[in-house]
Amino acid sequence: MNKPADHPPIPPRRVGVLLINLGTPDAPDPPAVRRYLAEFLSDRRVVEIPRLVWQPILRGAVLTTRPKKSAHAYAQVWREDGSPLAAITKAQAKALEGAFGPDVTVDYAMRYGRPAIGDRIQALKDAGCERILLAPLYPQYSAATTATANDKAFARLATMRWQPAVRTLPPYHDDPAYIAALTSSVEESLAALDFTPDALITSFHGMPVRTLQLGDPYHCHCQKTARLLGEAMGREVTITFQSRFGRAKWLEPATDVVLAALPAKGVRKIAIVAPGFSADCLETLEELAIRGRETFLAAGGTHFAYLPCLNDSRVGIDLLRTLLARELEGWVRLS
Ligand SMILES: C=CC1=C(C)c2cc3[nH]c(cc4nc(cc5[nH]c(cc1n2)c(C)c5CCC(=O)O)C(CCC(=O)O)=C4C)c(C)c3C=C
Ligand SMILES: [Fe+2]
Ligand SMILES: [Fe+2]
Question: Where along this sequence does the record place binding of Fe(2+) (predicted)?
Answer without folding.
Answer: 205, 283
